[in-house]
Amino acid sequence: MARWQRFGLATVYGVALMLSATIASADVREFFTAEVPFAFMAGGAHLPSGQYMVKADTENPNMLMIESADGAHSAWVF
Known about the structure:
By secondary structure, this protein is of the alpha+beta class. The longest helix is centred in the first third of the chain and has 23 residues, at 3-25. It has one helix at residues 3-25, and strands at residues 31-36, 40-42, 45-47, 50-56, 64-68, 74-77. The strands form two sheets. A four-stranded antiparallel β-sheet has the order 1-4-5-6, covered by helices on one side. The chain has a two-stranded antiparallel sheet with strand order 2-3. The protein has one helix and six strands; from the N terminus they run H-E-E-E-E-E-E. A hairpin with a 5-residue loop joins strand 5 (64-68) and strand 6 (74-77).
């Protein structure tokens, strides 16, 4: 596996870990925001660095929507 691929996987796992830790502590909120200082991939979409809102789908709480603060970028993950 190429070095950049390992870095990409480590980045995705790191973001997922941060998000899951925040979600676990935010069980009374409907969403949370995060400032992501680097570009990343989620749900097959390339997302640039910036401020993001993460919220669970009301019909399927196992799915999360990650959306940029300006609404220009988004992805669904589960």
